[in-house]
Design goal:
single chain; about 350 residues; alpha/beta; six-stranded mixed β-sheet; about 35% helix
Amino acid sequence: MTTDVQVELSLARQLRNRLFADIASGKYPAGSQLPPAREIARHQDVGYCTVVQAVRMLNEEGVIHCHAGRRARVLARPGNKYRIGIVIDNGKQGIPPFTYDNAGTCWLMHNAVQMALMKRHTPSITLPPEMDYSSYAGQLDGILLVRDTDGVWRFPLYPDRPAVTIWNQPPPEEWVNGVYPDREAAILRAGVYFLTHGVRQFWAVAPERRMDWFDALEQFLRDRGVDDCQRLPVHSNFGKALEELFNVTIRPQLKLPVAIITGGDYLSRELNRTMIAAGLQPKKDFFMVGGSGLTEAAHWQPALSVVGMPFLEMAESAVAMLFDLLKHPGERFPLCRVPARLILRET
């Protein structure tokens, strides 16, 4: 996984960040004085003028107060001390506003992150990756990156910039400082739901890259007597292509009642509609679970069960991890798995 952009921070900005981290961690509490400029220069191995510039930045930001002839004093700031950037890095659409048919998952996660930051009285700014926001990055203390693993990696890395990645799918194993949804247990609970309704057949309908979500579920059903398990990789979430796939591939092989799980929200909605239009009755002839889970989109199909994305829980975990990073610069935290939940709608 590669990145194309590297933004070099000035020595003064790097020093400002280190001093700010010391203040935020409590090394220099409110009301205390910073060491003399020459002492900072010697300790940090930088020039005196670099220290003066860094201290001036903190003074302009209201973190410290400088008075001619006196050492800088740390101010008590209302609310939280940090300023956070939210980066939306989605392969389809990076710039708000989003819609449910385009980057819906990132849109809802963005809202959840903003809510989590609001609880901590922390200001934030949304930074789409398409724009050159290097002028903003230097004034931010940390970044929350909302990442769509289906898309193209476009986020520019910033030296010495604490960042936490919020994935909508399991990320590369070597990744650190991030959170992601764990759908496995919820998907297995969908298998229990299918078995209680006596299904005779199982279909997993999803993009090829998401088919491995359902490996454990398929084995679970086979072990319990559902031997007819089928997979249908799709390239289009909706429209005539899906209708044709159903009529050509699924319908001739159907054994009712049938269990279906999908790897996309629009895919769930459109396949549900296609099957109803074909005269099949939901909750009787077929039992469908949407495997991606925009729970807020229930107005599409109020009776559609879903594996719901834990947006609020992921946002809270990511913000807490970022705050730990801000207090302990350079730390590497293991990936945090946040369990998804199965939401059954029987009506």
